[in-house]
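Data deposition worksheet. Section B asks for the primary sequence of the deposited chain exactly as it was used as input, without tags or linkers unless they were present during the calculation. Section C holds the resulting structure in token form. Section D is free text for depositor observations; keep each observation to a single sentence. Incomplete worksheets are returned to the depositor.
Section A, Depositor: J.P.
Section B:
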Amino acid sequence: MIEEALRTIDKSGVKRLTLREVGERLGVSRTALYRHFADKSSLLAAVAGEGFHTFRQQLAGAWEQGGGGRAGFEAMGRAYVQFAIAHPSHYRVMFGGFVEAIAKDPQLAQEASGAFQVLVDAIIAQQRQGLVRQDDPQQLAQFIWAVVHGVAMLVIDGQLKTKPQAEELARYAMERIHNGIAATAPNKTVQ
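Section C:
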């Protein structure tokens, strides 16, 4: 059902998704659908939960494979944009304001906050290494998320027409983010 919902979202958009249409495409009765999902919101919550779980794994994997530090951080930025490109329907449901259940569903809230926590933890690790300024890690994470999310949305909305354009903007954004949050050497007084 989730896979069919994703195909429908990809083809027609989130707003046009209905349980009835998903059921018709799968050849199952409305009663069978309602045994699994009470309504469209619960189906969208399941889509978002699956998306956040995969997203968290990919971000954490990129951090680890990059070896942490600046290389791991840049790998996370690339992984973020690559996830949006590879899973645009998940991404739109996760971040498009369609899921009201995040606050009401503890499991979904845990998946969503877990994905964000990967970024916060990477910032804290870099702060401990003296690579990132000692600003509030939550606020730094929100700043980084805003920039990389903007790149991801430009890509999946077709504003960046080619994969090289998307990759170049993601690389540039990560470089600028890193320069903006890098720990600065203490000022030396001139004698």
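Section D:
The mean pLDDT is 88.
Residues 132 and 182 are 4 Å apart (CA to CA).
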